[in-house]
């Protein structure tokens, strides 16, 4: 049961490095793992810019405890996906919304 629930969750998470990728994932009603500067003003900007007439703005859901994990499509079956362990967030990685240096990965999403 856990494996099925985890697979369902994983299928709804995408990684984005920039605003366009973030918005594309939100349009597919997915959660987004993105590099973030961890500033309150940035979160307010995300809420404002991502709001549409049909959906409220996105918000941070959590800062994952395991910062070295990220989402990546798995090889093999079409549509398969898995969590993999790449290097930590590289120093100098820009925040997807402000362009400032990112401090960590953040999981974002909308409420429907």
TrEMBL record:
GO terms for cellular component: aminoacyl-tRNA synthetase multienzyme complex; cytoplasm. GO terms for biological process: prolyl-tRNA aminoacylation. Gene3D superfamilies: C-terminal domain of ProRS. Residues 19-112 form the Proline-tRNA ligase class II C-terminal domain. InterPro entries: Pro-tRNA-ligase_IIa_arc-type, Pro-tRNA_ligase_II_C, Pro-tRNA_synth_II. Coiled coil: none annotated. SUPFAM superfamilies: C-terminal domain of ProRS. The keyword Lipoprotein does not apply. GO terms for molecular function: ATP binding; proline-tRNA ligase activity. Keywords: Protein biosynthesis. PANTHER family: BIFUNCTIONAL GLUTAMATE_PROLINE--TRNA LIGASE (PTHR43382:SF2), PROLYL-TRNA SYNTHETASE (PTHR43382). This is Proline-tRNA ligase class II C-terminal domain-containing protein.
């Amino acid at each position: 049961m856990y494996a099925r629930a985890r697979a369902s969750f994983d299928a709804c998470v995408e990684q984005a490095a920039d605003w366009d990728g973030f918005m594309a994932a939100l349009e597919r009603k997915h959660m987004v793992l993105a590099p973030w500067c961890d500033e309150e003003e940035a979160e307010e900007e995300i809420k404002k810019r991502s709001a549409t007439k049909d959906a409220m703005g996105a918000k941070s859901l959590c800062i994952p405890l395991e910062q070295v994990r990220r989402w990546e499509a798995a090889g093999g079956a079409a549509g398969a996906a898995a969590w993999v362990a790449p290097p930590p967030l590289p120093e100098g990685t820009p925040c997807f919304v402000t362009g400032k240096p990112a401090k960590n990965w953040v999981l974002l999403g909308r409420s429907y």
